[in-house]
Write a structure and sequence with these properties.
This protein is α+β, with helices and mostly antiparallel strands. 46% of the residues lie in helices and 28% in strands. A six-stranded antiparallel beta sheet has the order 1-2-3-4-6-5. Helix 2 packs across helix 3. 25% of the residues are buried. The mean pLDDT is 90.
Amino acid sequence: MGVDEGTEGRRDEIVQRLSDREALQPVLQELSAAGLYAYITVDDMSRWTVASDTEFGRIDVRVGADGFELDVWDTSPGLFWEEEEDHRREAFERLARVSLPAIARGMLDAGQQAWWDDADHGVGVRVHCELPFARREQIATIAERQLEILNDTIAVLERRLVE
């Protein structure tokens, strides 16, 4: 009795995921060598990911179709926390939630996205880029540069929201 196509496809998927984990091991070493605390985990979509949580933001690296996918992201909590009146703070947050998509459309580059984070009460930004496998040795430097871009973007968006 043969293996049906569904089982064979699932086996191929498992083998690919294990290969992805192996391909990420050198990325883990590169980020660790750069002084970042990095670890391999499975993300919310069941993909192997090298993750690093820094004081400047979060780094996620996955294996993509033609190389590595690098995401840096973070939220800036409490944009309106200094507002003492709860209803005014909630109104400012609601206005920010409604305004942010339009502001982001006019300001963000391809590979960047912004959102209002209700849990942190602030702006969230993700910067995505794809890198060829050959740039693995530069991934820590590239990630750190992307974190600078991330934080600059958050600052600009926050300024626009409070103007």
